[in-house]
Amino acid sequence: MKKLIKQTGTILFALILVGAITSCDATRNASNAQKGAVIGTASGAVIGAIIGNQVGSSKDNQVIGAVVGGVVGGTAGVLIGNRMDKQAQKIEEEIPGAQVERIDDAIVITFDEGSGVYFATNKYDLNEQSRTNLNKLSGVMKEYPDTNILVVGHTDSTGPYDFNMTLSKNRAEAVTNYLIGRGISSGRFTTTWYGPDRPTHDNSTVEGRAKNRRVNVAIVPNEKMIEDAKREAGEN
Fold it and tell me: What pLDDT, on a 0 to 100 scale, did the predictor assign at position 217?
């Protein structure tokens, strides 16, 4: 655990407000609670983490951007960041194999063959280990209900294109439907898929292809969390 870097000015105020925050992988950069005090731009970094470097290149990306939204600034942003930091750390503790990142106001979870939720080759049914980890994730989602959830499916580039597109759709929907079945409101979810179109690693290598066969889950503050934070901060 590394102590987060303290910054001056507004960031110092944020530290006073939210207290000392220590870092696991999910909070390894300067605290997102701190960042919320000074950043007010659209959250393109979150989109990039989900679909690689092709941000804004398709209509679907605009859909993702609408779900992710922008980063809330001011004291309300500090409060939101602190809540999301705590949620990210809880997910890391519950699912140690998952890759959990805190990016702007969002939590981005990457599930691939080495990280908690995975599928047999050319299959989209959830195995026992995947269900166990999604059970844990659903528990955290219930504990923090004021969020929206984006599920995005991907494949590597091997095999027929249409097959991969359908496979990524089925895998993303399998994750969404399982979480809904665990009691998470369907209204919190947006589900989309890209097949092989959005690689984050080199498809010419075995390791890269394994990384590209993934499902991303992004958790973002919903309108209620944002309004509650603004009211608490006296910004309404």
Answer: 95
pLDDT value at position 71? 81
Domains along the sequence of the chain with CATH: 2-232 (3.30.1330.60)
Q: How confident is the model at residue 121 (pLDDT cuts 50, 70, 90)?
A: confident
CB atoms within 10 A of CB 80: 26
| Pick from 33, 152, 141: nearest CA to 87 | 141
Contact, 211 vs 201, CB < 8 A?
Answer: yes
Query: What is the DSSP-derived secondary structure letter of residue 6?
Result: P
Q: Which residues contact 139 (CB under 8 A, 6 or more apart)?
A: 94
The structure tokens listed for 219 are 């958790």
Give the Cα separation of 49 and 225 in Å (integer). 23
**Residue 44's pLDDT band (cuts 50, 70, 90):** confident
Cβ atoms of residues 112 and 214 within 8 Å = yes
pLDDT tens digit string along 144-169? Answer: 999 999 999 999 999 999 999 999 99
- pTM of the model as a whole: 0.79
Residue pair 234/79 in contact by the 8 Å Cβ criterion? no
DSSP per residue over 88-108, as a string? HHHHHHH-TTSEEEEETTEEE
Report which of 78, 140, 71 is spatially closest to residue 109, judged by C-alpha positions.
140
> Measured at the alpha carbon of residue 9, what is the angle toward residues 7 and 11, in degrees to the nearest 5?
50
Kindly calculate the radius of gyration of the chain based on its CA atoms and give it in whole angstroms: 18
Write down the H helix ranges in 3-73: 10-18, 32-35, 44-51, 59-68
Is-contact 87 27, C-beta < 8 A?
no
